[in-house]
Amino acid sequence: MGVGDRRYCYEFPDQPGLCIKVPKAKKNGYRQQQREIRYYSKLADRGVPLERITRYHGCIDSNLGTGYVYDAVRDHDGVVSKKMNHYLDEGKLSPEVHLNQLDILEAYLFEHQVIVYDVNPHNILYKQLGNDRIEPYLIDGVGDVVAIPILNLSDTLVREKIRRRWLRMIDRLRRRFAWMENYRMQH
């Protein structure tokens, strides 16, 4: 299905709604996975709806080692949804569509105080719903890498962290696309 910086992603046999992520290297991939599992548990404890991030379902043994099961994001026709980068590079969607998807994702992150340590266009999928409707989904990078986790107990510091990381992605997009100058953070 895809390859990330630290994990391979495979289709789950006979279950098209699921995928299996397998770390490339045991040490870094395992640490990333454990960090995500802990963060998903915190989201569940807070009752955060996972409407914009893929749900984690647990781990399984595979012929490649331990695999971690997540929702697979598929378009209305069953095809695996494409990354935001694909649509940016192809130029098939209008700037307005991209700006709207960014607004939706930004609103979700701030409303539910979801921290993403690696927010960028290759970790965002655009799910095609049909009738020219799209929904954005974060597929990787959910959670936080902090030396002092107690800082995440402050709502103000969490919002600032989300803002800082979000703006990093926006700044990178602004360097690539002139129309991104029209993007204004809502939060």
Overview of the structural elements:
The protein is α+β, with helices and mostly antiparallel strands and 187 residues long. The protein has one domain. Helix content is 36%, strand content 22%. The chain is built from four helices and eight strands. The chain has helices spanning 26-46, 84-90, 95-112, 155-176, and strands at 2-3, 7-11, 18-23, 56-62, 65-71, 82-83, 124-130, 133-138. The strands form two sheets. A five-stranded antiparallel sheet has the order 1-2-3-5-4, covered by helices on one side. It is globular and about 45 Å long.
Topology:
Layout: E1 2-3, E2 7-11, E3 18-23, H1 26-46, E4 56-62, E5 65-71, E6 82-83, H2 84-90, H3 95-112, E7 124-130, E8 133-138, H4 155-176
